[in-house]
Amino acid sequence: RNEDESKVLEDAMGFILNNIDWDTELHIFKSQQNKGPNLFIYEAVNWFFDNEEKGIIIEEDGFFSMSFFDFAKKLLQKHEKDKEVYAICGFSAFSKNDNKNCDYFYSNINFAPWVFATWKDRWAQFDFELKNIYSFDFIHNIYHHKIMANTMMGYVDIIFKNIEEFKDKITWDLKFRFTMQYNNGYCLFPRQNLIKHLDFDSTHSTSFHKDTWIGNIKDYIEIGEYDFKNLIACKEDDIIKERYFEFLEKDILFSIISPKAQDKIKGILENSKEIYIYGAGFFGYILYNAYKELFKEKLIAFVDDNKKGYILDKKIISSEELKDSSEELKDKSTIL
Prior knowledge:
Elements: H1 3-18, H2 36-51, E1 54-58, E2 62-64, H3 67-78, E3 85-89, E4 104-107, E5 115-119, H4 120-123, H5 138-142, H6 146-161, H7 163-166, H8 172-182, E6 186-190, E7 195-197, H9 218-221, H10 238-248, H11 259-270, E8 274-278, H12 282-295, E9 299-303, E10 309-311, E11 314-317, H13 319-325, E12 333-335
Parallel strand pairs: 3-6, 8-9, 8-12, 9-11
Antiparallel strand pairs: 1-5, 2-7, 3-5, 4-6, 10-11
Helix pairs in contact: 6-12
């Protein structure tokens, strides 16, 4: 984006090159402009699979166990012909206290991009523009938690009704997850967690909210070195789904549907005659879609000085209009 940023990137590249101290054939993919993490990662992985049949992709903000290399190598070989397996991920939502006599499991609930392995033919199925997904009804078959399914459907709805405005806000990994789910695919996850996403320890976390975690976060993100000798697949059971639903609820997209958030909204509704949602953007829409049965007639409008029109059946008003319309009920009006 500017010369200062170019200098930082060149310094980072120099550091990497100076620390490759083993024999290897090195190929580098570079962009002359900042395309953001969404499009650039997609193009970079495309370039990778122009040269390789299978491989491992590592994002820059993850600290992973070296055991993942052996784990991925073995499963890339074992499941090479299993076309329903779309990726092998390093993350696991299992707590270290969950006792399981197996090494990995299948799941269509999630895809964790921080470190993963896949094949050229699986990546070729990736519908980056989401042009070939004609219905998202499959979401209700995957997310059995009603509010969670409604939240994801709300995400899809706002994207496709406002595609030009929101298309760049759909991260590549969620698009990959949709592609996998639409095609009845699965990801493979290790029994033990093999990747620590650095956002977990960040005071400026962009992916997760620390205050929404249930229990001790260290139960989920501690990593170690493991010996995957036999690679026994786990049988799907309730504990797998429970752990992944627990984890997904901590994602920024799902944090608004946590039990804590639900209880708070119910309390607000009991003490308010009018409700306004501040912000008519993506998360305002998601909030309304998740709780519209609770809001009912109490939700009057969305408040946004930069937008006009409606979100579903609710009008978007300005902050000045809010002052005028809620003056009589100001002691019983609440803005979320």
